[in-house]
Amino acid sequence: MKINFCWLGMFAVLFCAPVSAADLDRLEVEKRLSTAGKSHPADLRRKDLTDLDLSGLDFTKADLWGSDLRRSDLSNSDLSGLNLDLSVLSKVNFSNANLSNTSIFGVHAGGANLSNANLSGSRFIGVMDRANLSHANLSHALWGADMKNQSMGLMRASLNNANLSGANLANANFDRALMRYANFSGANLQNTVLFGVDLSGADFSGANLSGADLSGTRLEETNFAGADLAGTRFAGIKDKSKLKGLSSARHLDTAIID
């Protein structure tokens, strides 16, 4: 199957483009945040904020669109409701940060640390391969494919090899995402939409998948040992023998497999 990655190429060009603003340090960032208001947000737009300690700060009245935050520490910070579109987030530390209801579109966040972060209600399209999302809250997150931009190729979330162990993904939408070899062990995926997702080699051991929709997914070597499959939908599964651990899965008799 041929996959169009031209949209990723576009993001790479944007990420490599020179940043127009000069570097800022933490003291300057704190100064801008202290004088910010709803009508006059702190101007951090397209700023180079790489390798900074920005932990514990309130960015809710800041403009961070297109900013370069690579390797920066934003742990325990509040970024709720922000537009982080086209920002650069690779290897950033968002552990315990509040990212609820954020828009994160066209972003590279590979290797980022989002453990225990609040991403509930967020919208994400981009690359988050190898990210740490253990025990993160992604409930009601809208990380499904952007079907309005097909001329640019399928724009979707990529979480290959991501760690989502113990995460809360209840009622979230990951339609057509790439999640190969992702770790969902012990995660809550109750009523989660995983339609058309590539879950090859993923680990759902001990996860709660009750009511989840896995229709049309790729499940080669996917592990369901000890998972709760009450009412889980597996439409389009042709060969159940490829699924690992089904014999120890709970409520398999109520799963919808056709």
Q: Can you tell me about this structure?
A:
- The protein is mostly loops and 258 residues long.
- Strands 3-4-5 form a three-stranded parallel beta sheet. A two-stranded parallel sheet has the order 1-2. A two-stranded parallel sheet has the order 6-7.
- The protein is 8% helix and 8% strand.
Low-confidence stretches: 12-22
Strand order of the largest sheet: 3-4-5
* Amount of helix: under 10%
**Average pLDDT over all residues:** 90
Distance between the amino and carboxyl termini = 23 Å
Total DSSP E strands: 7
Strand content: 5-15%
Chart the SSEs and their pairings.
Blueprint: H1 6-16, H2 26-34, E1 42-43, E2 62-63, E3 103-108, E4 123-127, E5 157-158, E6 233-234, E7 256-257
Parallel strand pairs: 1-2, 3-4, 4-5, 6-7
Question: What's the short story on this structure?
Answer:
This protein has 258 residues and is low in regular secondary structure.
What attributes does this structure have?
8% strand; little secondary structure; 2 helices; two-stranded parallel sheet; 258 residues; 8% helix; 7 strands; 3-stranded parallel sheet
